[in-house]
Amino acid sequence: MVVLHVAYREERERKYKAKHGEETRLYDNPGQKHGGLWWTYLMSLFLKTAFEVTFLYMLHYIYDTFRLPRKVQCDVSPCPNLVDCYIARPTEKTVFTYFMVGASVMCIILNLCEIFYLIVARVVTMKQRGSVHTNTCAKIESKALKLHSLTELESVRF
């Protein structure tokens, strides 16, 4: 998703340059994570995490645990009655399953850490911009008040 979004932005940048000249730019950096690209990246992290959790749940639901049994009793057709079915190499499959579950859990943890980092970094950036904006507004207001008081003083003199 993110790669497609960056490709889309680069294509828009190319068309904008073709229309308005090579010197102009639509984006400062088409690959920078802000605006729509930030949201696309965040949504892709949520989707990846949801897929990992869903597949872990499905694996646990199918086997009632992450350990594969040596013997399964089934009565599914074409078997006429309850039959013992043996799983080939259950220990090897259990080890592989644990490895797969461990890798999935690590991916989930890393995705959650990255989501947390992105949101916290965005909040901090927005707070800093808000305080800078507030300081700028306060400076402009104080200059306007000084200018207004100076004009009042000049009008009183005349």
UniProtKB/TrEMBL annotation:
Question: What is this entry's stated membrane topology?
Answer: Multi-pass membrane protein
InterPro entries, sorted: Connexin, Connexin_CCC, Connexin_CS, Connexin_N, Connexin_N_sf
Gene Ontology molecular functions: gap junction channel activity
Q: Which PANTHER family match?
A: CONNEXIN, GAP JUNCTION BETA-3 PROTEIN
Signal peptide positions are: none
Q: Which residues form the Connexin cysteine-rich domain?
A: 51-118
Residue runs in coiled coils: none
BP-aspect Gene Ontology terms: cell-cell signaling
Transmembrane helix: present as a keyword of the record? yes
Which domain of life, per UniProt? Eukaryota
Keyword set includes Cell membrane: yes
Name the UniProt record assigns to this protein? Gap junction protein
Task: Recite the UniProt keywords alphabetically.
Answer: Cell junction, Cell membrane, Gap junction, Membrane, Transmembrane, Transmembrane helix
Q: What does this protein do?
A: One gap junction consists of a cluster of closely packed pairs of transmembrane channels, the connexons, through which materials of low MW diffuse from one cell to a neighboring cell.
Q: What transmembrane ranges does the database entry give? A: 38-63, 96-120
